[in-house]
Write a structure and sequence with these properties.
The complex is a heterodimer of chains A (111) and B (113). With 111 residues, chain A is an all-beta fold. Chain A is built from no helices and eleven strands. With 113 residues, chain B is an all-beta fold. In chain B, the strands form two sheets. In chain B, strands 2, 4, 5, 9, 10 and 11 form a six-stranded mixed β-sheet that branches. Chain B is globular, with a radius of gyration of 14 Å. Chain B starts with a strand and ends with a strand. The chains are: A mainly beta (111), B mainly beta (113). The interface between A and B is medium-sized, with 23 and 23 residues.
Chain lengths: 111, 113
């Protein structure tokens, strides 16, 4: 069966510090991968999606970036965090454009 | 631009009641529509996926319908239980421009024992 992992579960970082969130998927090959952000009281916002290794599409201009170094690994990064980067970050995968399956999420607080 | 709206924003019902959650979208050119459940502080759990060619999907006590022409979907929950308490999210995958998914803000459901 397929499993999706995200870490860390919770992160508190100072403004201006770097960020690296990791997502890995098990039990499937060549999945579509997604990074979403959920701000308090708001809907999910798609940040990045990837259809293959090294293929990243950005949906929202920001100080975040994403990379896909391996087929089932998706990394969200920032060189300098802003207060507005606080939120709940969710990774998801799908086979082509079908059902999306979400990870447990990472709660990021930037102080 | 696709917009997804969910009504009501919050709902409180007694246990055993049948209920309907609503989702509306502005652009009928969708690829599919997915309903999710989210418990506080957790990730999303997929409930049902309806393809654009389908009218409804059922899973246990859940039934989701899709009317593309009117830009609406409903999630019907039969015989609600306290364990159904969660936020329910509707998400529309568009057909063009990279199949981007647009989420509604969700309906927060509380089922009282």
């Amino acid at each position: 069966s397929q499993t999706i992992h995200q870490w860390p579960a919770t992160l508190v970082q100072p403004v201006g510090s770097p960020l690296s969130l990791e997502c890995t998927v098990e039990g499937t090959s060549n999945p579509n991968l997604y990074w979403y952000r959920q701000a308090a009281g708001r809907g999910l916002q798609l940040l990045f999606y990837s259809v293959g290794i090294g293929q990243i599409s950005s949906e929202v201009p920001q100080n975040l970036s994403a990379s896909r170094p391996q087929d089932r690994q998706f990394i969200l990064s920032s060189k300098k965090l802003l207060l507005s980067d606080s939120g709940f970050y969710l990774c998801a995968w799908s086979v082509l454009e079908e059902t999306q399956y979400f990870g447990p999420g990472t709660r990021l607080l930037v102080l | 631009k696709q917009e997804v709206t969910q009504i009501p924003a919050a709902l409180s019902v007694p246990e055993g009641e049948n209920l309907v959650l609503n989702c509306s979208f502005t652009d009928s050119a969708i690829y599919n529509l997915q309903w999710f459940r989210q418990d506080p502080g957790k990730g999303l759990t997929s409930l049902l996926l309806i393809q654009s060619s389908q009218r409804e999907q059922t899973s246990g006590r859940l039934n989701a319908s899709l009317d593309k022409s009117s830009g609406r979907s409903t999630l019907y929950i039969a015989a609600s239980q306290p364990g159904d308490s969660a936020t329910y999210l509707c998400a529309v995958r568009r057909r063009t421009g990279g199949f981007k998914t647009i989420f509604g803000a969700g309906t927060r459901l509380f089922v009282k024992a």
